[in-house]
Write a structure and sequence with these properties.
The protein has 13 helices and no strands. The protein is an all-alpha fold and 325 residues long. It starts with a helix and ends with a helix.
Length: 325
C-alpha cells in the first residue's frame, strides 16, 4: 500500500469508472429492444451502484482514520493532515493529469471552495481526533451531513430517516459527551459543518469537471492550505521515511479512494440521500476503532449502529422506490 504504483492503480481504476458506468447505463436504457425485465434489472443495478460506492468510501476513510490515529504521536495532528493531503494531491495529479485550460471562472471558484471545504474538514477532524476518541469524533462530525439532509430535502420521509439516524448517532456517543474535551468537541462539530460544505461542492465539482479532474485540483488547494500548518507543528518529522510511508497509506485510504468514490456517487445520488448515508460513518468508525484501536463495542453501540444502518437503508429505498415509480 505504501508503494506509489500500487496506490495509483486502484485510484486509476476508480477514476475510469464513470465512463464505464455511463456506457452500461446507455446499453440498459437505450431502446435496443431488450426485454423490459432486463432493463429493469439494469436500472436497479445502476441505482445500487452509488450506494456501493458510498459504503466502500466510508470503509476506506474510517479505517484510514484509525491508521492516522496511530501516526499522530509521530507527526502530530496537523502534520498528519499535511502528509495525507500532500500525498493524495500528488497521486491524483499523476493519475488524473487534470486539464488546466478551458474552465470558466465559476468552475475555478467551485474548485477553490471544494478545496477549502476539504482542507478545513480534514484539519478540524484531526485536531478533534487528537483530543477525543475516534468513534465520538465521527459521531459529532456526522451531525453536519445530517443537518444538510434535513435542510436540503423537500420530502418529509428524508427528514424522518435523518432523525432516526440522529438517534443512533447520539446513542453511539455512549452518553459520554459531557466528559469530552470541549475544544475537541468544538473541532469535531466544525469538521461536520465543513463536511456538509464538502458534500455540496463535491457534487458541483463532479458536474463541472470530467472524471476526477476537479477533485485533483481541489486536493492541491487543500494541500497548499495545510502545508504551512504542518510545517510549523511538525517540521523535520515530516521527512522521516517511515512517517512518510504511513502518511501515504493514510492518503490512499482516507483521501484518494474515498473522495474519488464519493465524487462518482454524487453524480448519481441526490445530496440529501447521500448526506443521510453519511450517518453510516460512526458505525464504520466504531468497527475500525474496535479492530485497529482495540475500542470495545457495547450493547448500546450495537443498537445505535442498527438504527443508523436502518436509517440509511430507508433513505436508499425511498430514493429507489421513487425512481421506479
Amino acid at each position: 500500500m505504501n508503494d506509489q504504483r500500487s496506490a495509483a492503480e486502484p485510484a486509476a481504476a476508480a477514476v475510469a469508472v464513470p465512463e464505464a458506468a455511463t456506457a452500461l447505463e446507455g446499453t440498459g436504457t437505450g431502446g435496443t429492444g431488450a426485454p423490459a425485465a432486463g432493463r429493469t434489472g439494469a436500472g436497479r443495478r445502476a441505482a445500487l451502484m452509488p450506494i456501493v460506492l458510498v459504503v466502500a468510501g466510508g470503509l476506506s476513510v474510517q479505517f484510514g482514520s484509525a491508521v492516522a490515529a496511530l501516526l499522530m504521536p509521530k507527526a502530530g495532528a496537523l502534520g498528519v493532515v499535511t502528509l495525507r493531503l500532500a500525498a493524495a494531491a500528488l497521486i491524483l495529479l499523476v493519475v488524473c493529469r487534470p486539464r488546466l485550460r478551458g474552465h470558466s471562472r465559476a468552475d475555478w471558484g467551485t474548485v477553490l471552495a471544494f478545496g477549502v471545504a476539504m482542507g478545513g474538514m480534514n484539519t478540524l477532524f484531526y485536531l478533534a481526533l487528537d483530543r477525543i476518541p475516534l468513534g465520538i469524533a465521527v459521531t459529532l462530525e456526522v451531525l453536519g451531513p445530517l443537518a444538510l439532509s434535513v435542510f436540503a430535502s423537500r420530502r418529509l420521509i428524508n427528514a424522518l430517516w435523518a432523525g432516526l439516524a440522529l438517534v443512533g448517532v447520539v446513542l453511539l456517543g455512549g452518553g459520554g459527551f459531557d466528559r469530552l474535551d470541549p475544544l475537541g468537541a468544538a473541532f469535531a462539530l466544525g469538521a461536520g459543518a465543513m463536511w456538509a460544505a464538502y458534500i455540496v461542492f463535491s457534487a458541483r465539482t463532479g458536474r463541472r469537471f470530467p472524471q476526477a479532474d476537479g477533485l485533483a485540483l481541489a486536493m492541491v488547494v487543500a494541500a497548499v492550505l495545510s502545508l504551512p500548518l504542518g510545517i510549523i507543528e511538525s517540521g523535520a518529522k515530516l521527512t522521516v521515511p517511515s512517517t512518510v510511508a504511513l502518511g501515504a497509506a493514510v492518503a490512499v485510504l482516507s483521501s484518494v479512494l474515498p473522495y474519488t468514490l464519493e465524487l462518482m456517487a454524487l453524480r448519481r445520488l441526490p445530496a440529501p440521500t447521500f448526506a443521510v448515508m453519511m450517518s453510516l460513518e460512526p458505525a464504520i468508525a466504531a468497527g475500525a476503532g474496535f479492530l485497529i484501536l482495540d475500542q470495545a463495542l457495547s450493547t448500546t453501540d450495537a443498537l445505535a449502529i442498527a438504527l443508523v444502518i436502518g436509517a440509511s437503508i430507508g433513505a436508499v429505498r425511498s430514493r429507489t422506490g421513487r425512481r421506479e415509480a
